[in-house]
Amino acid sequence: MGKRKKLIRIYSEPAGGWGALKATGEALAIQGVAVSGAKTLLQMNQPQGFDCPGCAWPDPKHTSSFEFCENGAKAVAWEATAKRCTPEFFAAHSVSELTAWDDYDLEMAGRLTHPMAYDAASDRYLPIEWDDAFALIAKHLNALDHPDQADFYTSGRASNEAAFLYQVFVREFGTNNFPDCSNMCHEATSVGLPQSIGVGKGTVLLEDFEHADAIFIFGQNPGTNSPRMMSDLHSASRRGAKIVSFNPFRERALERFASPQDPVEMATLGFTPISTFLYQVHVGGDVAAIKGMMKAIVEADDAALAADLPRVLDIEFIEGHTHGIDALLADLRATTWDAIVHQSGLSRDDITNAAQIYMNAKNAILVYGMGLTQHHRGTENVQQIANLALLRGNIGREGAGICPVRGHSNVQGNRTVGITEKTSPQLIEGIERAFGFTPPSGHGHDVIATIESMMRGDAKVFIALGGNFAAAIPDWVRVQAAIRKLDLTVHIATKLNRSHLVHGRDALILPCLGRTEIDIQAEGPQSITVEDSMSMVHASAGRNEPASPYLRSEPAIVAGIARATLGEASRVPWEHLVANYDRIRDAIETVFPMFQAYNERIRVPGGFHLASTARERIWATPTGRANFLVFKGLEENPYHDDPDALWLTTMRSHDQYNTTLYSHSDRYRGVFGQRDVLFMNPRELKKRNLHPGERVDIVALATDGIERIVRSFKVIEYSLPDGCCGAYYPEVNPLVPLYAFDPQSRTPSYKSVPVKVRRAAAVGPDSATRAVVIQHEVDHHA
Ligand SMILES: Nc1nc2c(c(=O)[nH]1)N[C@H]1C(S)=C(S)[C@@H](COP(=O)(O)OP(=O)(O)OC[C@H]3O[C@@H](n4cnc5c(=O)[nH]c(N)nc54)[C@H](O)[C@@H]3O)O[C@H]1N2
Ligand SMILES: Nc1nc2c(c(=O)[nH]1)N[C@H]1C(S)=C(S)[C@@H](COP(=O)(O)OP(=O)(O)OC[C@H]3O[C@@H](n4cnc5c(=O)[nH]c(N)nc54)[C@H](O)[C@@H]3O)O[C@H]1N2
Ligand SMILES: [Mo]
């Protein structure tokens, strides 16, 4: 574990550059994969290689030479690690002991090598045979009063093949309970965009970035979370496209970037400026900023009309393709600049300037991430992006469109192949057509409903295809107590994590192959397929020897569980499908006709694009048109009246992949060796008579009477708008009340938590102590 050197300093270098190369080398060295790791990296995103297990940003045609990406390299190094988490490891450490470990140290134990089952007598995980593990799952599932007492979680790394088999199994078993990571991520996109434009995905392709005159980035941190996007932004900036960012943080990569592939920048320590303007919008102030931009556009259009100049609004598009402009215009005219400025934290000049750049651009792309979706009104936030695009017809033509940047590398594909708690008639008919059974209709549980069912004591079994549910969810101190009351928890995983320790009476850890590894089934080596953020579907095949001979592929594990649970009566030929994944793809094609010629098309380098109606200006909405949807008012959040309140946003450091920590540092924000920090601006510190480096307790301003506190966070002086603060996920998730979610998409409000800070009560500085204290405190008040 070792002692970490803690340091706070201003990071003055550009993002990327030599710092990124150095960090990549260090990541490979930490995981002991220096030589084979480098070889592994060369296969990443190659036509015959594997898809990067990191983010969902596409690769140019998927055929280019090796694209350098620091965080992609880390994702690979963490999977291709030389470290192993063996039965000996579990014999040496009880579950109670491991529970006190830091999340970083848990994953540093290495790749899981054997199926393991929890033994209460010794408080340890002990090895179990695969068939016995499947039988144990079957016993629990078949003993339920109703299939809805089980919940089946998916994290977005699973392949299309694994995710498809999983949903078919769960539906044949009899439930639509599919909580998935998307429920905590881009659900606001999946719910919001269909109402606006008839599809729940983005409308741009990578090529569009070469033709955009302006790119707007709302609440997304590409230098850390989709670093391959930096090469597109880098070239856009160089050819003179304007880039405008809205972010409470001055994220370094949004300011300036040195491309490790640019020999001149590397040799001269030069860089390329990225954002022409970076507006530090108030946490939760985006809707005000976007409405302000739209108001400025309407004012400019009024002026143009009066002066008999060309219109600013794309009237032809609006008349030919949209619905609802009058209501939008009326709302914008009724919204005052004072209110917009107050709520957004930006000046009228700044907003008008951003609007001017947008109006000057023939083609504009609107990019957004979690800074927009993870809010109480996330769905409506997303719809304002659509409104802004529609005003100037910036959709369905080259160089223009909406670009939600997805999270996990295959989260979008998981949805496409049927991981959804909302069952459509098409899905039901498709499954009937392919397998001859009728799946349950109606809606199952999403993440919030799953948690509610656990808290009520209705849920009995929780099965997870990847992920780290118990750490990624809101309010985890409270929810973990409910998870511990389940009859069975099952985790299909590559690495040990918190969720494996927060377990039911019976518990299994089932180790699976990762994307970098060779997958051999009865009929030979297999490849899987994934869909990226721009709806490109392509094949991926690992080349590394599996981390252990006992691993099974995710499709094989799902098939094993399915056969044991459903027996010979199942209508699905599980073993036959798994023997050759081409058959799984044929079945996907039968259920979802948009995958026509699936197996042929993935054999073409680069794969294929899943058609998007909005991109063709076909509007699959109830009105048959693209809809302008009005956001009433400007308030992101209902409780905004406490003068002492701060709005806490929670985000990722540069050295983490969701709950997986690569280190305790966050290079671009100048934080080293620590994560228990709270970013605040100098004025807010002064107001509270706090000095940088002092420790505070953060208290959630909740309305349910439960006290939520995390203790002893170090305050750091940072450039942020007044009234805001920021901290890392998942450490502060206990502050996010379960009830705080967007009522439409039910995405948790991770990016706007009202809190107060107070000088810390004296507790030890290490995070393990702090977690225990929170648990105690919350339990005490619950
Ligand atoms: N290396 C790496 N890559 C990843 C991930 C990872 O953890 N590590 N996670 C993957 C996943 S699942 C996802 S969903 C994506 C996440 O990628 P992002 O969407 O970039 O996620 P975050 O870091 O949570 O937050 C994004 C930005 O929102 C800003 N922000 C916070 N609150 C607000 C607000 O109210 N308004 C605005 N405008 N901005 C705000 C933050 O300052 C931050 O810069 O990345 C994926 N890729
Ligand atoms: N406060 C706050 N909370 C958040 C967020 C936030 O911004 N703020 N973001 C939310 C978002 S956007 C998301 S997507 C969720 C993420 O939630 P999850 O997707 O549940 O979490 P991850 O941390 O990505 O899961 C990591 C684990 O996945 C397993 N794993 C890795 N690779 C594989 C594989 O190939 N197969 C299998 N079976 N398992 C594998 C490993 O065991 C690893 O420990 O968190 C959400 N929670
Ligand atoms: Mo995500």
UniProtKB/TrEMBL annotation:
<dbReference type="GO" id="GO:1990204">
    <property type="term" value="C:oxidoreductase complex"/>
</dbReference>
<dbReference type="GO" id="GO:0043546">
    <property type="term" value="F:molybdopterin cofactor binding"/>
</dbReference>
<dbReference type="Pfam" id="PF01568">
    <property type="entry name" value="Molydop_binding"/>
</dbReference>
<dbReference type="GO" id="GO:0045333">
    <property type="term" value="P:cellular respiration"/>
</dbReference>
<keyword id="KW-0560">Oxidoreductase</keyword>
<keyword id="KW-0500">Molybdenum</keyword>
<dbReference type="InterPro" id="IPR050123">
    <property type="entry name" value="Prok_molybdopt-oxidoreductase"/>
</dbReference>
<dbReference type="GO" id="GO:0016020">
    <property type="term" value="C:membrane"/>
</dbReference>
<dbReference type="InterPro" id="IPR041953">
    <property type="entry name" value="YdeP_MopB"/>
</dbReference>
<keyword id="KW-0408">Iron</keyword>
<comment type="similarity">
    <text>Belongs to the prokaryotic molybdopterin-containing oxidoreductase family.</text>
</comment>
<keyword id="KW-0004">4Fe-4S</keyword>
<keyword id="KW-0479">Metal-binding</keyword>
<feature type="domain" description="Molybdopterin oxidoreductase">
    <location>
        <begin position="111"/>
        <end position="492"/>
    </location>
</feature>
<dbReference type="InterPro" id="IPR006657">
    <property type="entry name" value="MoPterin_dinucl-bd_dom"/>
</dbReference>
<dbReference type="Pfam" id="PF00384">
    <property type="entry name" value="Molybdopterin"/>
</dbReference>
<dbReference type="InterPro" id="IPR009010">
    <property type="entry name" value="Asp_de-COase-like_dom_sf"/>
</dbReference>
<dbReference type="InterPro" id="IPR006656">
    <property type="entry name" value="Mopterin_OxRdtase"/>
</dbReference>
<keyword id="KW-0411">Iron-sulfur</keyword>
<protein>
    <submittedName>
        <fullName>Formate dehydrogenase</fullName>
    </submittedName>
</protein>
<dbReference type="InterPro" id="IPR037951">
    <property type="entry name" value="MopB_CT_YdeP"/>
</dbReference>
<dbReference type="GO" id="GO:0051539">
    <property type="term" value="F:4 iron, 4 sulfur cluster binding"/>
</dbReference>
<dbReference type="InterPro" id="IPR010046">
    <property type="entry name" value="Mopterin_OxRdtse_a_bac"/>
</dbReference>
<feature type="domain" description="Molybdopterin dinucleotide-binding">
    <location>
        <begin position="646"/>
        <end position="754"/>
    </location>
</feature>
<dbReference type="GO" id="GO:0030151">
    <property type="term" value="F:molybdenum ion binding"/>
</dbReference>
<dbReference type="GO" id="GO:0008863">
    <property type="term" value="F:formate dehydrogenase (NAD+) activity"/>
</dbReference>
